[in-house]
Amino acid sequence: MTNLQGKVALVTGGSRGAGRGIALELAKAGAYVYITGRNAGMPQEGQARTLEGVLAEIRRSGGDGAVIRCDHTNDSETEAVIRQISAEQGRLDILVNNVWGGNTLPIGNEPFWEQPVQHWDHMFTAGVRAQLMTNYYAVPLMRREGAGAGKLIIHTTFWDEYKYTGNFYYDLSKNALVRMAYGLSLEVAADGIAVIPVSPGWMRTELVLDSFGTDEEHWQEEEGLQTTESTAYIGRAVAALAADPEVISMTGTPQKVGDLARKYGFTDTDGRQVPAYRIS
């Protein structure tokens, strides 16, 4: 699939997890993908993924892109990312706001007054605010070509009909991202820019796989991972949205990856169409 040929995309937090999956799938669909994050350099044996490692994967799959090391809690570094994309490409068609620092501490279900208040800084400063500031600098570049340009902004989040997630800080921050996308969708509607919060299910991120002592090649041997989905699944959802000429009709409305799989007809890497995640 090269239906995104000629498009320029930016995926923040692209070295691992959902960001990596999205970057790879956008590149496979033909987009030139910029990926940002703090993990630079080629990964060594046994180390976590890095930006350059993901770029190497992109190129092995026939795609192309570039890496920009960026700490998105530093506004000047975020601004520099957009300035570089503007200088090199003169445009930005797809923005995936995926940067997230909220998993620095274990996310438990204790009452919030028993939780460390550092959750606020990790989830809001390195999550919600980091995504807001990326929008702040990127939207003027995305608006440059005027109305009807068919641009797309994605916020990766979690949403299940506003059901409570069980962790006060996590619930508050993820719903803040949903509301951010809604408000922004109204402000850029006249420019033809769709803004969509996308909610995956239980993904087999590197952290999840490590917690089970397995990897992506052997996860099916673990009974507890049978209902999970790969990070490519959300990547395919984002690529499908970016290629949809009618995507503006969905702007501002949260979308679950499993529902998008049914709508667009894609499957996960193992051939399953994993249902949308629901809080029981």
What does this structure look like?
The chain is an alpha/beta fold and 280 residues long. It has a single domain, classed as Rossmann fold, CATH 3.40.50.720. The protein has 8 helices and 7 strands, in the order βαβαβαβαβαβααβα. Strands 3-2-1-4-5-6-7 form a 7-stranded parallel β-sheet, with helices on both faces. α1 (17-28) packs parallel to α2 (51-60) and α7 packs across α8 (257-264). The longest helix has 25 residues, at 118-142. 44% of the residues are buried. The mean pLDDT is 93. InterPro entries: NAD(P)-bd_dom_sf (IPR036291), SDR_fam (IPR002347).
H/E series, N to C? EHEHEHEHEHEHHEH
User: How much of the residues is beta strand, in percent?
Assistant: 5-15%
**Assembly type of the shown chains?**
single chain
Task: Please give the radius of gyration in angstroms.
Answer: 18 Å
Helicity, in percent? 25-40%
Q: What overall geometry do the principal axes of the alpha carbons give?
A: globular
* Main sheet attributes: strand count, strand direction, barrel closure: 7 strands, parallel
CATH homologous superfamily, by name? Answer: NAD(P)-binding Rossmann-like Domain
Mean pLDDT: 93
Overall tally of domains: 1
Structural class: alpha/beta
Protein name: NAD(P)-dependent dehydrogenase (Short-subunit alcohol dehydrogenase family)
InterPro entries: NAD(P)-bd_dom_sf (IPR036291), SDR_fam (IPR002347)
